[in-house]
Write a structure and sequence with these properties.
37% of the residues lie in helices and 28% in strands. The chain is α/β, with parallel strands linked by helices. The protein binds S-adenosylmethionine (SAM).
């Protein structure tokens, strides 16, 4: 493993994070320290890959600092750090457990567990936005009660499949996830298999938002994708919603929330839809849940 690191000006952090999310650049991250300097870090297999990754990033962000420190670390050391970072998480009866803890993790009676290996896809369960979406999913399942099993659920930008597969574990029989990243679809299908999930309950497709939603209707849709992209596709997202459906959005920075809410209110009016909006904040991230 080769790590690149450089201190960056605070003004660059949000734009870089948004870019990583939008492009699915999982090898890059920002290290936030309270009141301290901000560091941009990149994780690569080799120094040559690190140079390539940095050159590509500089095309979009020419203002990146000229000097990056590089450090080679043992793969084993890296894996241990990764395992230390990723811990099981639960909300109500839903548990997300790293695959390597499968043997030792005890699932309480009546609860369900998804054993996850996100590989290179987004969706380990550690991100605030994924957790915000899971809470909305749990709320939806609870509100629909016995009818939940029959609800049509869509996970737009499914990443590792974490949300789609959670929907199935909670009892849904008609779940569909899509992502523009082929690696995400490969990982989602693998997670379906390794969790012994019935393949007829969930399907995954490699697709962008437009083609992914074509001919679809959702009673509940989760879209944890960057705010700018959600805004561009607002009309398409509404068009795929069934009457009285719930549209749960995340990938929204808290400071973007008012603007995103306004945008979706306007798009709803344009589409002749009335809906109630609700939001939750987790750290610097927010969700926007629209009840049609
Ligand atoms: C923030 S990740 C969310 C992954 C997972 N759903 C979760 O909540 O952890 C966003 C995902 O959306 C995908 N994505 C971004 N733009 C997209 C688009 N226009 N169409 C389809 N997928 C997109 C990315 O490839 C990425 O896997």
């Amino acid at each position: 493993m080769f790590i690149l690191k450089a201190e960056i000006p605070a003004e660059l952090a949000d734009a870089l994070e948004a870019h990583f999310c939008e492009e699915g650049l999982l090898s890059w991250g920002i290290e936030f320290a309270p009141n301290g300097p901000l560091f941009l870090k990149g994780f690569f297999e080799s120094e040559a890959e690190a140079d390539e990754g940095l050159a590509a990033l500089r095309i979009t962000f020419p203002a990146l600092p000229a000097y990056f420190a590089g450090e080679q670390i043992e793969d084993r050391e890296w894996q241990e750090a990764y395992k230390e970072f990723l811990k099981p998480w639960s909300n109500g009866r839903l548990h997300w457990v790293p695959a390597w803890e499968r043997e030792s993790y005890v699932v309480p009676e009546g609860h369900v567990a998804l054993y996850l290996d996100a590989g290179m896809a987004f969706g380990t369960g550690s991100h605030e936005t994924t957790r915000l979406m899971a809470r909305r999913l749990m709320d939806f399942a609870q509100t629909r009660g016995d009818a939940y099993a029959q609800q049509r659920i869509i996970d737009a930008g499914c990443g590792s499949g974490i949300l789609a597969l959670s929907a199935v574990l909670l009892g849904a029989k008609s779940v569909y996830g899509f992502d523009q990243d082929p690696e995400a679809i490969r990982v989602s299908r693998e997670n379906t298999l390794t969790n012994g999930i019935a393949p007829e309950a969930v399907s995954f497709a490699e697709a962008g938002i437009e083609s992914g939603l074509e001919g679809r209707q959702a009673d509940f849709m989760m879209a944890n994708i960057q705010a700018d992209i959600l805004k561009i596709h607002a009309a398409g997202l509404f068009a795929a919603m069934a009457p009285h459906g719930t549209l749960a959005l995340s990938g929204i920075l808290s400071r973007e929330l008012d603007e995103v809410r306004e945008h979706f209110n306007f798009a709803a009016t344009e589409a002749g839809i009335t809906c109630r909006a609700d939001s939750r904040i987790d750290g610097e991230w927010a969700d926007l849940c629209l009840f049609l």
